[in-house]
Amino acid sequence: MLNEKNLLLCGAVLALTLITGCSSGGDAESEKDGVASVTEPGGAKGGAAKRPETDDSDSGRPQIRLDTTQVEEIRMYQGYLHCLKDHGVPISSKGSKMPEADPGSLWFPSINVAEERPEAEKACLGKRPLPPPELDPKKNPDYMDDYSKWIACDNRRGLKVNPLPDGGGWNYKPGATQPRNADEIDKECMIEAFSGE
After folding, report:
1. What is the pLDDT of residues 112-152, one digit of tens each?
2. Number of folded domains in the chain?
3. 188: domain range?
4. Digit-coded pLDDT (tens) for 86-113
5. Which of 38, 34, 49, 48 is nearest to 7 (CA)?
6. Shared-domain flag, residues 125 and 157
7. Residue that finishes a domain, picked among 117, 135, 153
8. Statement: the pTM of the whole predicted model exceeds 0.90
9. Long-range contacts for 25-28 (Cβ within 8 Å, ≥24 apart)?
């Protein structure tokens, strides 16, 4: 069973979401064969989901920054989540998933909205927050180099992960013990790698 600490890991990768958000049964990660995978909003694991296309329709959408906190990100997603709910996508309140979030905050759907409810995704896309530009391979020509630095930093600091080949996420190394402050390590490493610090 995943604990709330691991759930918060999704926040960092949420940015890579990627982009952003958790789903897949409402959990930030899912386990298969003992390996946890970071999920992207929309319900796909790691790099399996298509990254959202960016174009002129992106103007006016909330913009996530590298240093956006998990609580801030949850707040930024509320307009999008309310829109999905209004379009019939099953969405629940946050419950115990993130006690620091505002009471009544909606949580991410447990389905891949883009695949299972494309009409709702299309109607609500203008409210979906954009990932940090540094995390968008189309906007960051150094994305894969920065991504490699992120993974190396995580591993150097004790968060044992294996990168996905397309740079779309990572999986825990099987059998590795993860540090209690894994979410903090991952966020700090992401900021360090992608901001050039």
Report:
1. 999 999 999 999 999 999 999 999 999 999 999 999 999 99
2. 2
3. 143-195
4. 999 999 876 546 667 777 889 899 899 9
5. 38
6. no
7. 135
8. no
9. 25/110, 26/92, 26/97, 26/107, 26/108, 26/110, 27/2, 28/2
